[in-house]
Amino acid sequence: SLVAGAETAEDIIDLVHSLYAGLEARRLAQSYQFSRRYGPLLPAHNVVGARRLFTCSLAYFWADLLWIAAERARGRAPHLWAGRLAHHVVQTAANLPVIRSAGTPSRLSASYLTLAYTAELSTIFLRLRALMARLAARAQFKGAGRARNAGRLLAFLR
Asked: What is the SS3 assignment for 79-133?
């Protein structure tokens, strides 16, 4: 069905975001340098990469926000829509100041936010599990329909 296809596509897009954000945050976090004053810090040359990560992630969140708004306008309630909206507001509040700041405060904020983004790695397995369950349920449903049709055909031929 169209709804099942849209939900599967949403799971795939969420998985791609988790893969990109988690792996890029991990790559950036591996470059941390220790500062006596501030602790672990991104090297200055990686702050641009961190800002790119946060900007791409924010674009994903805002696209999802627009999609939720469009679905709600149609009278539909996307899965966990209220929680997702709250999450997008929190992410916007966390990402925008880092994207827009400069100098040492930007480097500090980018370092901490990059570390927080490594948590996306843990969602990869949750998203894969949800996607596999959805695909398995669709395959069972289609298989049950085929079995039912085969049974009808056999009954007709007797």
From this structure: CCHHHHHHHHHHHHHHHHHHHHCCHHHHHHHHHHHHHHHCCHHHHHHHHHHHHHH
